[in-house]
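thread: overnight batch results

M.L. [08:02]
morning all. the overnight job finished for the chain we discussed friday. pasting input first so we're all looking at the same thing
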Amino acid sequence: MQSRFRRLAVFCSFAIALLFVSLALAQSANQIEQPLPISLGTSGGNVHNITRRFCCSGTLGALVTKNSTDFILSNNHVLADTDTATVSDDISQPGLADVGCVLTASNSHVVAHFSETKTLGTDNIDAALAEIVSGAVKTDGSILEVGVPSSTLATPSVSLGVAKSGRTTGLTCATIGSVSTNVVVQYQKHCGQGRRFRIVYLNQILVSGSTFSAGGDSGSLIVTQSAAQPVGLVFAGSTTDTIANPISDVTNAFGVSIVGDVDHAVSCPAAAGTAAIARGPLVGSSQPALLAKEKHAERLMQDEAVIGVGVGADPADPSEAVVVIYLEEGRPHGPIPAELDGVHTSVVRTDAFRAFGWKERNPHPCRVR
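M.L. [08:03]
and the structure it wrote out:
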């Protein structure tokens, strides 16, 4: 047994050495060490977010302010290490996953100290704050590829064109697929290992599209394409959708304001520009769909295959609202109604919504994520 562990240790050491080489060749602007002061939308996280086999990183999403003090806003599972962090823990840029799980003075900066979170499952958000180190973060709130966001918050709506800049997928654009969405999200207690548990969130934003985000983009600020107005905070996803807390829920919970400036358009990547154009508003049908969702969501989600219920646009007629039902692939499920109180339903089949590593393959021992 000892020889087996010795061989594994040697293999891991070799793998990590190779990782340093591959990281240097393959990293994006959102993953590399930045000169101080840094822009946000970048790799980062709690320096203790590491286990024997894995280390994890997310995105340092946005700058917020409260009582003349500035904080980095990201997720609980990024800054607070899934409810296990200690106040004043160092927050690094880049995160552990982008430096081969070994932080040094030459490959990273301490840019903030963890200061406050909301316990998962208690406030309907996955969010946390870290007080910035003086001179370490641009105080205008600049986000890579987005610029300085607007200081005006946007109200999420179905088919609204949105953008985000995150650690893994950089700048991406898409449209909101459903709002007021109740979802079940899977967590693990520790990075890459430990007990799995699920939390139900109410009235969340779901952004459609397989390319909008991936594991490591947790903590990214979602803004509107047309005005860079903050609309949501990414915290989970699947291969088909991204889940975000409405940004007003987050700022209200902490009593903070987004550091921003005037409205401005976000320049989406060419490949996303056409596909992510917002459609017109839902005409006269949102309220019946919302009422039907509120009345039936809890009952529908008693079926364990139903992992989300929200309000979206009818694929056959984008001007009409429907109740969107998200089904976890591979799970047997009961009958799904074609209508709820006269409102059509639309089914989206996807894999489990996860706070860690969505779109990732099963990790190999020693693999960072």
